[in-house]
Amino acid sequence: MNAIDIKDVKVGYTKRTVIDELSVTIPENKITTIIGPNGCGKSTLIKTIARILKAEEGAIYLDGTSIQKMDTREIAKQMAILPQSADSPAGLSVFELVSYGRFPYRRRMGSMTAEDYEYINWAIEVTGLQSFRDRPISEMSGGQRQRVWIAMSLAQGTEILVLDEPTTYLDLAHQLDVLMLLDKLNKLEKRTIVMVLHDLNHASRFSDYMIAMREGEIITDGPPEEVMTKDNLRDIFNIEADLTDCPYSGNPVYLSYHLSGSDDHLPSRNDDREVM
Amino acid sequence: MKLDHLQPDSVIKKRKRAAWIIAVLFILIVISFIISLNTGYIRLSPFEVISTVTGFGTDQQELILFQFRLPRIVIAILAGMGLAVSGAILQGIVRNPLADPGIIGINAGAGLAVMLFISFFSSDLGSSVFALPFFALLGGGTAAVVIYLFSYKKDEGVSPIRLILVGVAVAAGINALMIVLTLRLDPESYEFLATWQAGSIWGSNWSFVQALLPWLIILIPFALMKSSVLDVLNLGDHTAVSLGTDLEKERRILLAVAVGLAASSVCVSGGIGFVGLIAPHITRQLIGSAHKYVIPISALIGALLVLGADTIGRILLQPSEIPAGVVVAVIGAPYFLYLLAKLND
Questions:
Q1: Which chain B residues in 125-154 lie under 8 Å from chain A, judged by CB atoms?
Q2: What residues in A contact B6, CB-CB < 8 Å?
């Protein structure tokens, strides 16, 4: 089963087309990661899936229906999106922010129902934020804040979770923390997760499926062991990578790398060099 | 159905806090109301006020209270509410605490229309007073449309900061136009314009109350109904879309509501600026940014602010008066600068 079908999509800005005739499918109940160099169109693709950008041609299908033909609130009940930059307004507590995740279900004047509160409390619990729920967002660290935003997306109660670079600006430990949380949600709750990541090793370690892009096109897609190869990385990023297997996931990861067709990585730091 | 057990203490505490704030503001408004009834060219003691209200006053006392002071007080309260809620909505749409119907030119647009209207019908308004809000709306609405069109870009929609900058420019343009027009006005219209721009509550009889009240009765509850949309808009455009808001549509509706509130208020109260800036800001300091609290509390603070300013303006330089708009500006202008300085941090 496919969660999202992207068919012949063309997207761009007024002057520039970023993606043209792109087709790819996102598998259901899996973690899919989109990778690629800066400016390759991965953010554009995820924004189009998130209906922040409109496809000029082609369409994105959610469960067989084109999202252009769906009511935006109905989409919000099936797919939650965590944008790269979200503003946290001052004077909001964790509980209040997470409660906004119930927005697609609210009727005009209606106050929240018991079901709404159950979703909110579940989302706070599963993200490990119980002891923080009264705290103002402004007093939380970057890593904790990212958890709060994920909790808000979870409160939306959707099958699909779309995240645009959820680990950017976080330190190593918090990056892993966020990815493990997403992994848990996928394993335990069977959520379909689609995200953009910059860190290839994280992408390989936590993904079931990877989509590699360059210059608005998909170079290759498949399970990590098919995508994370020496040849593909050269094609996608112009790098020569030394690959090995991740001791935790068994998926391929790189130890180090240098730029293709360049010897600039030499000499190594250990060489004795005269000080000029 | 009580759902308190599903909510953390902080949420319940905040609800109680909001109720307390509303109660305190209500009492403060009642106190200002009584003081305002007492003060003016002819002072009435609290005892005389009470006896007149209960029907034992002289004809002169009744005339002063019921025909002059009371409608003016009611208009101050209503206009304060309208301007404050308008500001709260605008700040929600543009996600910037500097938005205010006065600063971005909606008040000026409404004022220009009111001025043209008055110069046609002269000072004898009669039953045409009910047409006044519509004219103000036309002026304020035109200003808003111009601001909207100039701050709209195809790929990005309306950028909040562009909306403010364009608004400031539009406000300056309209004010300049008004000054040019004053050169051609007869002395009577000129005087009207001058007092209007200073924000003097000029529409002080019951027909003005009747002209303004329906707008607020419809638009303030509507704004309250949209409070969850405003909350979500606060999270940024992308998050708002992700949560299922039709961004541009909601923005346009809310902008129209803000214009309606500001224009109908301003056409009877004169160009009172800064209320839409100060009231929502104080409110957010008191209770946070959930709009189900921000809207009603801003409304009360706005009412208190304009009523207080009007009363103070009548007390300070007796027997002459300082327009309420000037009194608010004395507080408002430094407050605006303070906000600007704080934003730069």
A1: 154
A2: 114, 117-118, 121
| Positive or negative torsion for Cα A150, A155, A156, A161 | positive
Distance from CA of A108 to the nearest CA of B (A): 6
Contact B238 A96 (CB under 8 A): no
What domains, with CATH codes, occur in chain B? Answer: 80-344 (1.10.3470.10)
Chain-chain contact of A92 with B11 (C-beta, under 8 angstroms): no
Which tens digit of pLDDT belongs to each residue from B253-279? 999 999 999 999 988 888 888 899 999
Phi, psi of A21 (to 5 degrees): 50, 50
* Whether pLDDT at B115 is above 90: no
Distance CA(A197)–CA(B295), nearest Å, equals 40
Find the radius of gyration of the CA atoms of chain B: 20
Beta bridge partners of A213: A218
Residues of chain A with pLDDT under 70: 1, 86, 108-110, 263-276
Cβ–Cβ below 8 Å for B241 and A93: no
Alpha-carbon gap, residue B119 to B122, rounded angstroms: 5
DSSP track, B52-82: HHTT-S-HHHHIIIIIIIHHHHHHHHHHHHH
Name which of A74, A103, A108 to mutate to probe chain B: the one with the most chain B Cβ atoms within 10 A of its Cβ: A103
Q: Mean pLDDT lowest for which of A239-248, B28-37, B144-153, B178-187? A: B178-187
Write down all domains in chain A, each with its CATH number in brackets: 2-259 (3.40.50.300)
The length of chain A, given as a count of residues: 276
Indicate the SS3 state at residue B125. Answer: coil
The confidence score (pLDDT) of residue B301 equals 97
A56-65, B18-27, B184-193, range with greatest mean pLDDT: B18-27
This model of the complex carries an ipTM of 0.86
Sign of CA dihedral B71, B76, B77, B78: positive
